Amino acid sequence: MKSLMMQGTRILSTGSAVPNSSLNNSQISEIVETSDEWIVTRTGIEERRLLTGMNKSVVDLAVLAALKALDKISMSPSEIDLIILATSSPNDLFGSASQIQSKIKALNAVAFDLTAACSGFVLSMVTASQFLKSGTYRTILVIGADVLSKWIDWSDRSTCILFGDGAGAMILQSCPQKDNQILGFQLNTDGSYSNHLSLLYKEQVYPHPVLNLYQGSFKYISMNGKEVYKFAVSQVPISILKCLNSLNISTHDVNWLLLHQANERILKAIADKLCISNNKIIVNLNKYGNTSAASIPIAFDEALTENKISNNDIIVISGFGAGLTWGTIIIKWKS
Ligand code: UT7
């Protein structure tokens, strides 16, 4: 552990992974009463990827995404000091990040999970940047990965059409301030609305004459779609504006809006409120649906692969979802 005061943060590499198995809207209409037309019109989603097969977990996708990010820059996993796994669907409630550490052989890395649903990647990136800024660590692997297909009630048409599985990874490294790419951030939580989107614990009495215990398991995802929609469209633009204003950056200077891929209507409504042109929105939810903590890093990785992002571009990243938690990061891209 080295102490270097007030370092900047540089994005060195990204990677992503989605399962091979896809489920399109016509196939979903054989499971619940819905239609391709309804789903596309209301959400923009055409298909999603699902992790199928026995003993497959979020760790498999996260490892693939991480290895791709490492491979792109030929980095040895032993260089990683910290791994943060943003997930709400771990395969071990004690944490899944340590399994990733072992599988990718990042033997020098500390690893932990961070749970903040669809805002998980934004919170993890900010957490990582604080460790880098303080000089505590030099190289951090941040992964957003979720397999919400395991937690969906496949008879509930209001949720099962939305979500898909995936993972996205990003390698961040400390750098001199002049090369800093994370210009600022703004984070929020309002727990009084947590009931609008939850995956709750279900208790049952533990049958023992002496122990007065309750044990249980988790229910399915439950969501009040209309309220989550209204929250996202009203609060996310405020967060973005606060963050841009604090940096003296105008909305006209924004090159890309990289928002959590929840619903195309939400993305467009946020852009419209900010008077940012719709062609600056990065969208890939048509292919993957809402992949929760993975949606931002997957979209980021694809945008870079497609050479959409140019030197000095200002990218506004915003996550929002259960908690309710939402937040923004402003990036200045340096290639
Ligand atoms: O990471 C954050 C995660 N969550 C979100 O981003 C969710 C945000 N919310 C949304 O994206 C939208 O609220 C939904 C896409 C979930 C729903 O769209 P909506 O325009 O708000 O529809 P609605 O819930 O108001 O439902 C309209 C109608 C209802 O029928 P009635 O009561 O008008 O007869 C629903 O029963 O559409 C019906 N409906 C469906 N019909 C066909 C709801 N789901 C479906 C469906 N197929 N899958």
TrEMBL record:
All residue ranges annotated as the Beta-ketoacyl-[acyl-carrier-protein] synthase III N-terminal domain in the record: 112-191
TM region positions: none
The protein's annotated pathway: Lipid metabolism; fatty acid biosynthesis
ACP-binding: annotated segments: 261-265
Record: active site: 118, 260, 290
BP-aspect Gene Ontology terms: fatty acid biosynthetic process
Protein name: Beta-ketoacyl-[acyl-carrier-protein] synthase III
Record organism: Thuretia quercifolia
Lineage, top ranks: Eukaryota, Rhodophyta, Florideophyceae, Rhodymeniophycidae, Ceramiales
